[in-house]
Design a protein that fits this description.
This protein is an alpha/beta fold and about 300 residues long. Helix content is about 40%, strand content about 15%. The protein has a single domain (about 1-295), classed as NAD(P)-binding Rossmann-like Domain (Rossmann fold, 3-Layer(aba) Sandwich). It has twelve helices and 13 strands. It is globular, with a radius of gyration of 19 Å. About 40% of the residues are buried.
Length: about 300
């Protein structure tokens, strides 16, 4: 199939594109920079630029692009960049693909479990209502921005990603240095639930969503065994063979990161992947310790 991917050089995209190419798909990458390969297509959501003619014949669109939410300390300007990078790109993409001569069959658009906000130990699934707070608002509007595609009959899947675990980027890569130095520890109370997902399962889930045409709407992309931050900390320490005695109190996290600490590190969301399980997806890494061992000690798997 002809597959169009935005955010192709990001944490997920850089794993997904080679996988899809190996499956025999023709993968076109949306890029903000000058094209480096024949299948690169330059776009500029801020200036509403996307060459429609290059998109003709696309069957599947996978939209992963968006400003890194943990890239900089949040202030009004950064928050607006995070929001606009998601809404403008999604709006432009949906408006463009709905004008093509042959409509794509499927749009898979990234979202996040930030949709649910801070919910303590409440078990959350795709039917749970949205939470409150900056990330919950962004996720709700991001998913709503896909409406033009849905209204035209394109199958839309909103993948609500949990904390994506990869040593190459994201939360885990940031945690490795302090943990390896023996100064890792619990964040805040440690009771907050972290719903996580191995990056290999992210690729598997996206492929599952391409091939399972009954799936549409919100789909939680999280492992079926969410853990508390305390459990995550102890497990990561055990896998690395390092102590985890140095806690970071909530106030220290807020001092260092501001509002981002509350929304990203101290918020609790205990999310279950009900729709994936119901549709028969088999997780490669449903439990945390094997996932971390696979990601951090790849040699020990063979």
């Amino acid at each position: 199939m002809k597959v169009l991917v935005s955010g192709a050089t990001g944490l997920v995209g850089s794993e997904l594109v080679p996988f899809l190419t190996k499956q025999g798909h023709e993968v076109y990458r949306l890029t903000h920079s000058q094209p480096r390969e024949a299948h690169d297509i330059t776009w500029d959501p801020a200036h509403n630029q996307l060459p429609k003619a290059r998109l003709e014949g696309t069957e599947v669109v996978i939209h992963l692009a968006g400003e890194n939410i943990a890239g900089k300390r949040w202030n009004a300007k950064v928050k607006e960049q995070i929001r606009r990078s998601r809404l403008d790109g999604t709006k432009l993409l949906c408006e463009t693909i709905t004008q093509l001569q042959t409509l794509p069959k499927t749009l898979i658009c990234a979202s996040a479990i930030g949709f649910y906000g801070n919910r303590g130990s409440e078990l959350l699934n795709e039917t749970s209502p949205p939470g409150t707070g900056f990330l919950a608002d962004v996720c709700r509007d991001w998913e709503a921005a896909c409406e033009p595609a849905r209204a035209k009959g394109i199958r839309v899947v909103n993948l609500r990603f949990g904390v994506i675990l990869s040593p190459k980027g994201g939360a885990l890569s940031k945690m490795l240095t302090p943990f390896k130095m023996g100064v890792g520890g619990v964040l805040g109370s440690g009771n907050q639930y972290w719903s996580w997902i191995d990056v290999d399962d992210v690729v598997g889930i996206i492929n599952h969503c391409i091939t399972h045409d009954k799936l549409s709407g919100p789909v939680n992309a999280t492992a079926p065994c969410p853990v508390t931050n305390y459990e995550f900390t102890k497990t990561l320490g055990a896998v690395l063979g390092r102590p985890t005695f140095v806690p970071t109190p909530g106030f220290a996290a807020r001092l260092a990161l501001g509002e981002m600490a509350d929304d990203l590190l101290l918020a609790s969301s205990r999310v279950m992947p009900n729709r994936l399980s119901e549709s028969g997806y088999q997780f490669h890494y449903p439990a945390l310790e094997p996932a971390l061992r696979h990601l951090l000690n790849p040699k020990s798997n063979h």
